[in-house]
Write a sequence for this structure.
């Protein structure tokens, strides 16, 4: 029996090497995983467009970013003949199950989500003072319900497929915990005789790449503008690497600049890096030049594959359609099971 693996990426901007090393590389490794003792994984990879809708509220842009992300998945090596690649919005069971879960979770429970708390913190100073907002509820004026409800949709994504494993970066750990809690709550509320409807998923987070740093040393993130794009051209790689922050207060011990080194070790093993960094102590320009070469050599084949795939976007759309049919079958069967248990279907 294959284990079930599911993960997703939001189409909210250009994929970066933090997405890749933190999560997407594991997608490919686990899709290809075989060790003779297990049957490997049946993988579901999702374009989380409904999650992205919290941010991207322009039809043209959403269409473009969705196609871009489908190309990214295929270019890194997701094989649609083995893995199910689909768009979240194409499988309506995700939003339907979200509603069912909504009736089980409470407002204070969702208010503990990191992403929601971050959105609230962002608001309070400027907006609140400016608008003379008084009540606590009014202060939430700029936060849409989708942001609040985000973990519930993500729980539905995961639980619909009886997922065993969810490969993600550290920032998604809490969301997988929400999925586990919601599964338990549903099982406890509706299931009798110790038969559980939902399986408890496990996050898969690889320690060394749980938080990939950006060019300023903070977590690499679309919203911080500190990324190295996954399909960057040679020129874009040069620009990004030359902007890596190396001022004296971030120079590490022994003349090794951590902001360069921590990105470099994603591309080359540390045994190979030691002589290079020993030979170029404090020579940031030379180290950056070496890093540019290593990133470019690594990204080039994927970049070329992506350019090839882009020639025939109809084929990519066909892959998504096919993926939605396959995912939809599984998801609809699970939803029917749920609807029977909650009593809305005979
Ligand atoms: P998203 O689109 O923000 O990010 C996609 C994946 O990239 C990981 N990641 C990182 N990992 C390490 N270091 C970084 N600097 C870094 N930046 C991003 C994220 O942890 C993530 O694994 N909510 C999800 C999408 C989603 C999903 C799902 C994931 C929707 N439904 C169901 C798993 C299962 C998100 O916003 O990922």
């Amino acid at each position: 029996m294959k284990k079930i693996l599911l993960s997703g990426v939001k189409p909210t901007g250009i994929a970066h090497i933090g997405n890749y090393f933190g999560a997407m590389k594991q997608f490919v490794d686990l899709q290809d995983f075989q060790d003779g003792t297990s049957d490997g994984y049946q993988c579901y990879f999702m374009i989380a467009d409904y999650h992205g809708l919290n941010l991207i509220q322009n039809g043209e842009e959403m269409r473009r970013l969705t196609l871009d992300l489908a190309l990214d998945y295929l270019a890194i090596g997701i094989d649609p003949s083995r893995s199910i690649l689909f768009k979240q919005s194409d499988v309506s069971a995700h939003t339907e199950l979200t509603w069912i879960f909504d009736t089980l979770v409470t407002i204070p429970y969702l208010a503990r989500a990191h992403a929601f708390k971050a959105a609230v913190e962002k608001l309070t100073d400027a907006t609140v003072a400016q608008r003379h907002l008084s009540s606590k509820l009014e202060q939430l004026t700029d936060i849409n319900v989708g942001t609040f409800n985000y973990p519930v949709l993500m729980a539905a994504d995961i639980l619909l497929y009886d997922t065993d494993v969810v490969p993600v970066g550290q920032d998604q750990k809490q969301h997988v915990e929400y999925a586990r809690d919601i599964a338990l709550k549903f099982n406890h509320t509706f299931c009798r005789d110790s038969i559980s409807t939902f399986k408890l998923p496990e996050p898969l987070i690889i320690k060394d790449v749980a938080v990939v740093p950006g060019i300023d040393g903070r977590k690499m993130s679309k919203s911080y503008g500190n990324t190295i794009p996954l399909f960057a051209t040679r020129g874009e790689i040069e620009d990004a690497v030359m902007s890596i922050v190396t001022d004296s207060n971030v120079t590490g011990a022994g003349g090794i600049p951590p902001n360069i080194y921590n990105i470099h070790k994603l591309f080359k093993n540390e045994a190979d890096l030691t002589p290079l960094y020993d030979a170029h102590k404090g020579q940031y320009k030379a180290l950056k030049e070496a890093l540019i070469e290593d990133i470019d050599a690594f990204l080039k084949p994927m970049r070329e594959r992506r350019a090839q795939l882009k020639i025939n976007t109809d084929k990519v759309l066909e892959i998504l359609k096919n993926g939605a049919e396959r995912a939809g079958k599984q998801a609809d069967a699970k939803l029917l099971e749920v609807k029977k248990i909650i009593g809305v279907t005979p």
About this structure: The radius of gyration is 22 Å. The longest helix spans residues 313-342. The longest strand covers residues 3-9.
